[in-house]
Structure formats: C-alpha cells, structure tokens
Amino acid sequence: MIPPELHAQIRRLFYAEHWRLNTIATQLGVHHDTVRRAVESERFVRHGAQIRPSALDPYKAFITATLEQYPRLRATRLWAMVRDRGYPGSAIQVQRYVRAVRPAARAEAYLRLETLAGEQAQVDWGNFGPIRVGSTTRVLSCFALVLSWSRGGYARFALDQTLESFLRGHVEAFTALAGVPRTILYDNLKSVVLERVGDHIRFHPRLLELAGHYHYAPQPCAVARGNEKGRIERFLGFLRHSFFAARSFRSVDDLNAQVARWIADVAHARPVPDRREQRVAEALADEQPRLLPLPEHPFRCDLLRAVSSGKTPYVRFDGNDYSIPHTLVRRPLTLVASEHAVRILDGTTEVARHPRSYDRQQRIEDDAHLAALTAVKRRAHDLRGRDRLRHACPHAEAFVEALAVRGHPLASETTRLLRLLDQVGAVTLDAALAETLARGALSAASVA
C-alpha cells in the first residue's frame, strides 16, 4: 500500500498533467507497477468515502475485450464504438482509460544481417529538399547504393526520381564499383514494384530488363520492414550530415563531382562497422573480385516518348518546348531524353538535338530551324504579293518576268509595285506597266 497522498499525486500527474507512467515512476521513485495500479484503481478511498461510479464503467469490459482483439485500435475509434452503444461521456475519458489498459506492444528482436562478399547491395532514394533551377524550383534527390559486406558506396544527385534516373544510378554505380552484386535489396518503390499481394510481386518491366542485363536478382524488403535495409539508410544519413550539410555548389554536376571526392576521401576511409580493423576502401578492394563482371555494353536508360507538335514547330517535354524542323509539324516523332540532351527522331533519323533544360516554361531553339521557317514564310509572302499583282493588272506578269530576266531583286520590286497598287489603283498601275514595258525601262521606279 502507498500513502493516500502519493496515490493522489500519481493520479493527478497522470490525469491532469498527462504524464506517462514511466515518467511518474522515475520522478517519484516508485515502481511502475505501483503507478499503474494507482492509475487503474476504480475508486479513491479516504476515510471510508467513495467516489461515485464513472459513466464509462459499464463499457470498460467492452473496451478491454476490443483492445485484446485489436491492440492498436485508436481511442477515438473506441469512443465512437461505445458512443453508438449508449455511452454519454466525452472522448477524453475513453482516451485516459485506453491509455491505462492498452496491452503493451511486444518488443521485437532482430537478427544481425550477415552477408557474403559480393552477395548483396542496398539501394534507396534520399530527399534533399528544393533547389532553384533558373526560374523554377525542383526537388533535389540522391540515388545511393551501398555494398552490404564492404560498405563501399556510390551516390549521385538528380533533379527528379524518375525511372530513368533510377536506372541511370544503377549503371553508374556498377561502373564506379567495378562490378555488380548478386542481389540488390530495395524498398517498395514504384520504380521497383508495380503490384504486391502478400509474397506475390510484380516487378517493373524496365527494372527486370536492367537486372537481366547485369545478371543480378532484385529483392524488395518486406512491407513495413525498414530495418531490413538499415545499411543504406545509415549511409544516406551519414551523407546528409557529413557531406551535404552547409554544402555550396554551382550545379548538380558540380555537386556530383564533390560527392564522388567525399566518398573516396571520407566515406571509404572509415572503418567497416563490424570489422573495425579494416577500412571500407580495403574491404571494397577485397570484395570487388567477388562481384559479377560488367557486361560489354552499359544498359541504355534514356527516356523514349512518342511526341508530335501542334501548328508551331515545337515539341513539349518536361515543361519546356524544343524546336524541330518546320517540315515535321504534326508528324509523329520520337523523343529521346538523356540526363543532358534531348534528341528528336523521325523513324530512325535524328532530326533535332538540344541541350536538356531543367528549368520550366522555356523555349529551346535551333537557329537553323527558325531560319528555314523564316525563309519559307518570306517566299510565301513574296508569292502571295505577285499573285495579287497578276490578278489586278494584266501586264504585271510580263513585267515581273522581265524583271527576273534582268536580275532585279523581285522581293523589293514587288513590294514597291504593291504599294503603288494601293496608292493609284489597278487601272492606273496597269496602264503604267504597259507603257514601261513598251519603253523597256524595267523597274518599279520607272513605273512610278
């Protein structure tokens, strides 16, 4: 038995101050079972007086039984359930009771992960927040891969988490580490798993192509089992605090050059966590002969997309417009995007190539495309002007042909004649053209 004063203090700290049971036990120097009994006591006895029964009393057995069946059920849901059964009180009373009687979660023990050299790697994305790119903002991400045995790692930053960037990260990591692990452990990313029902997994077909090209086996973590990929999470955490914090960089390419140096000079200079006598760089050198060899050619991970333009000679990609030859307007084309370039194909023929922009709402143009379109438009304008002259003045066609024979600039001469047509009218201009032809003084100035 504890003194009534201590009993009252425990209940006040729990119900009024909302302290946790362990906090009360620590601060008052009593066993946590003593605290629990005081909190769960149905009545407080002082000189034989009893507190009146709670409105929740008739429902406590139901709450306890429900919690035994569903230990993680929220108190707000239990309050709704007892309210439907006639409970007139507030949710706070239910929350206090649930806090006191909810079964404690059973602590789970984990086995230490032991892998063989060359057997496994772990892969994940890290989010590093927004950065400014031109006039827009993009989210900076980091693809990371770490070998489970040696802790040899690779990281590259990107401005998206697309499938193509995910595949590109693998290709560059395999090249940097000079080999391929036999198994790669993933979180349940959309780039990896399209559908999962229990143990039945449907992988993304492009990831399977990558795995087939490099001969490794993809392996997703169990659902809600982040502990299975603790090594990649620790690597990303180390990178975030040791490398990225307070880091300045001019571009993503500059950042990737810096992180490559940091991995070589810092990350690979650390001791291997479970073999402190060996550095990561030394362990990686021992592991590399156990990795699968690289294939003769790297996997192609460019994005391919069917595109077509509207009335103007541009195709849209990733928020930007890229120019194409005007002769291909409204034609079905293929866009091929790598990390640094955008190419446009007509069948298998490359018809345009541009540097890739990660800004948005930009127009990326090839001067040759614009010059060709301008020339066509100018010729069309000249032809329309000559047609107007021929329809208005019967002698205009012979006059223009004579100008062409003598090498006069037809565009400027046509412009002058059209100006005269607007000023003096068709009849007067046609008479002047006939007179000029008869005299042989062939120029728009002679007509005027």
Any overview of this molecule?
The model is unreliable at 43-49 (pLDDT under 50). The protein has a five-stranded mixed β-sheet, sandwiched between helices. A four-stranded antiparallel β-sheet has the order 10-13-14-15, with no helix packed on it. It is an alpha+beta fold and 448 residues long. A hairpin with a 2-residue loop joins strand 1 (120-133) and strand 2 (136-147). The protein folds into four domains: 4-101, no CATH class; 120-290, Ribonuclease H-like superfamily/Ribonuclease H (Nucleotidyltransferase, domain 5, 2-Layer Sandwich); 303-365, no CATH class; 370-447. It has helices at residues 4-15, 21-28, 32-40, 60-69, 75-84, 91-101, 163-177, 205-214, 230-244, 252-265, 280-287, 367-392, 396-405, 410-424, 426-439, 444-447, and strands at residues 120-133, 136-147, 153-158, 183-186, 193-197, 200-203, 217-220, 271-272, 275-279, 303-307, 314-317, 320-323, 333-337, 341-346, 349-355, 363-364.
Which structural traits does this protein have?
448 residues, Nucleotidyltransferase, domain 5, 4-stranded antiparallel sheet, 16 helices, 16 strands, 43% helix
